[in-house]
Structures are given as structure tokens and as C-alpha cells.
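User: Predict Phosphate acyltransferase's structure from this.
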Amino acid sequence: MNAPVIAVDVMGGDLGPSCTVPACISFLEDTPLVKLILVGLSAEITSLLPPLTDSVHERIEIIDATDVITMDDPIAVALRAKPQSSMRLCLELVREGKANACVSAGNTGALMALARFTLKTIPGIDRPAMMCCLPTQANKDCYLLDLGANVDCSAEQLFQFAVMGSVAAEVMGVINPKVALLNIGIESIKGNQQVKQATSLLESQNKLNYIGFVEGDGVYRGDVDVVVCDGFVGNVLLKSSEGVLKLLRTRLENRFKANWLGKLKGFLMFLPMLRGLRKDFSPEQYNGASFLGLQGVVVKSHGAADGVAFKSALRHAYTEVEENLQARLSKQISSLLEDVLLQ
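Assistant:
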């Protein structure tokens, strides 16, 4: 197999090239069997490059883009007014087979629209969904989708997300993954119409290990392997979780810094533990959400990602390419949807 090639929209994100370019160089230094195509304003990219080793220099390519999609650009502007944007050129590299994956920290709505327009969806899938993995008390990952790509979803789309999430979890090594719909209760009478209709669809098939509803606290207990919801709910859950984690970390640090005795106790007793927890549950470590359902690998980095987090998104894309995730998804999703429709 040739070295995987990842196209990087270096102009995306709140910090832009000052964050993404150093992260790309660091990623290349850590990962010898990969090539990166940096797409953006070439003069700005070049000015940020440090002296490169021969090994890194030969695995990096720069493609100039004359347009940049901002975080505030409407989708119509991204689609029609900026044909030479760094984001769009990255996706076209994937479509043309010149890159195996695209990574961007840019405007989520624009990336979603451009990815659908450029790469198209897998047959049987209406809309792509964003998926990430979360840590749980059960010491296993829980896959959550959608994270915000689809604010309003029909029952049929939630059903498709469940199929994609189950297949993706299996590809990532989960055996017979337990799939659930996120709801405000586990009782069958609870939930909005879309959720109730989606559970009827899921209960009518026997190809997925669908176990019913799960509440928010069950996500982090590890009760299930795949949690399905619309993008509005998923985004609120994810951002709230990040906020709670930061709150706890700040409160603990402030408590230890309150006086000299607290500092001493914190240094001797709790600092190693806190460092371990920070490493285990750092949002930066889990950065990188997959756009499932596309005919190509697209990974969305958090817009506020720092260099460490952006490297995580690059590693995420690299893993998906190495695992041939998109092709395996296409094959298994088409087969499963066909079987379900025939029932």
C-alpha cells in the first residue's frame, strides 16, 4: 500500500495556519509513513514553516488556495462564491483520488455542504453524520452521532445514523455493538415524535443490536457502544461535557492553590493523579469527528483546537485510512440497508 495522503485545510479553525501548520509538521515527525498536502494561502504557509528535515520535506506538498471560508460564511457563499477555497480544494483532492482523506477545523456547515456536493453520499444514506468517541466508566469508548451536522433529523435519518454508527463501531473493533437512541427517559412513552418513530423502525429489524433508549448519564457509564441523536442534541451533550470537565479541573486547581498547605498537599498527593486524569479525559485527545456516510474520508477538527488537538484529528484521519473505513462502511451499509428494506 502506498503511503496515505491527507489533504489539510490549514486555513480553517479559530487559530488558522499559526496552529495547523506547526501541528502538521509535528504530525509528520511522529508519523513516518504518511504524506500531507497543505492547502491554503501558500505565502502564509511558507512563512510559518520551520527548517525541515529531509524526511519531512519530501512528504509535504503545498497547494495554493486563493479563497478562505470564514467561520461566519453562509453555506451559499461557501458553495457558490468561493470555488478556490482551501476547504473545497481539499475535498476535490479526495474526490480525484489524489488524497485519501481531508481534515479541516473550519466552518462545520460549509464543510458538510461542500463534502456532500463534492464527494456525494453512500447509496441509501440521505445525509452524512458526524461521529466521535467518548470515554466511559467501563473503560471503553462510546461512539456518539450526530454531533451537529444535522440539527433537524427525521426518524428515517436517525435510523440511518444507527446503521452507520453500528457498522463504524464494528470496523473499529467492537463486537456486536449495542446501539441506543438518546432520550429523556428509557420508557417507551417518552421522547419526541422523531425518536419514537425511529425506535419503531429500529425495533422492526434484526440486523442491529438495538437495545432501546439511553439517558445522558448512561452514555458515560458505558451502557451502550453507539448512541444516536440529532445534531442539535449531540452538540449540546458534547459541549456541555467539555464544560463540566473544565469546571471540575479549574475548581480542583483553585482549591489546591488557595493556601500553601493546599499547594503542598496538591503537589505531593494529587498532582500525579490530576495529570493522569487530564491525560485520560482531555478533550484534545478525542478531537476529530468523522463525517460518516460520504464517499470519502472527511474528519472535522474542533474549531477551537490547539496544536495538540489538531494532531489528534490528523491521527484520526490516518487511522480511518489505514483501516479502510470508508470502503468497509460502504460495503456493509449497502448490504445492511438492503436487507432491512427487504424485511
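The mean pLDDT is 88.
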